[in-house]
């Protein structure tokens, strides 16, 4: 789980720094101003999911067995 979480974080950061991520941020800002909605770019979901998986994996790895 830690490795998959790390991979998701890496993918999210790579996407954020790419042209696609920049376009997603720009499009999100415009769309949110037009209709007042709340949109989240895909790279934010990748990073958040990666953090959750990495923390869950670390918690399971550090857990004491009965």
What report would you give on this structure?
The protein is an all-alpha fold and 66 residues long. The chain has one domain. It is built from three helices and no strands. It has helices at residues 2-17, 19-35, 42-62. It is elongated. The two termini are 21 Å apart.
Keywords:
66 residues; mainly alpha; 3 helices; 0% strand
Number of domains: 1
Largest sheet: none
Give unreliable regions as ranges: none
Count of individual helical segments: 3
The percent range for strand residues is: under 5%
Span between termini: 21 Å
User: Could you state the order of secondary-structure elements as H and E?
Assistant: HHH
Helix-strand makeup class: mainly alpha
Assembly form of the protein: single chain
Number of strands: 0
Average pLDDT number: 89
Can you give the helix content as a percent range? over 70%
Radius of gyration: 16 Å
Shape annotation? elongated
Describe this structure in a few short sentences.
This protein is 82% helix and 0% strand. With 66 residues, it is mostly helical.
Produce the secondary structure layout:
Elements: H1 2-17, H2 19-35, H3 42-62
Helix pairs in contact: 1-2, 1-3
